[in-house]
Structure formats: C-alpha cells, structure tokens
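Troubleshooting: if your tokenizer reports a length mismatch, compare your output against this known-good record of 95 residues.
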Amino acid sequence: MNKYEIMFIVRPDMEEAEIRKTAESMKKVLTDAKANILEEKSMGQRELAYEIKKFTTGYYYLFVVEANKEAEEEFNRVARINENLLRHLIVKVEE
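Known-good structure output:
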C-alpha cells in the first residue's frame, strides 16, 4: 500500500449539502476500492489562482490515504468524469 495525498476542488455554484455529498461520493470511491483514509480535511471555499470553467472560487478537499494502485486509478477515473469537480491532484507521498 502506498500513501497518497489527494486534493480536489468542487464547483462553488451548488448547494452546501450537494457539495458535501460530492465529497462523500469521492470518499466512497476510495473506501470501496479498499483504501484507508488517514486524514480528511475540508479547506472551505477559496479563490482559485486562475479561472477554471468560468469559476473564480471553489471548495477544496484534501484526503491523505493509504491505497493500492487500483484505488488511485479508480479515483482518477471517476474524478475525470465527475462534472462537479473542477480539478483534482493525486500526489504519492514518499516515506
């Protein structure tokens, strides 16, 4: 199992409950793929460095997980097709 930091940005034009539901669905993708979530942090709404899909702000989430390669690939696949996410980034943490 490798350790990853996963950050993603959720669109700001949705209801707060829908934003949380999107974050929970992304968390479920990881847990369904047998990843262990070590840390979960909602960083709130922040200004983006540049405009993405005509948005200047977004809701940031950070997960620190222990996962196998398949879980990381599945999260990446789902994040690419989820229209509620503006961006995502997966970084492998070297011990």
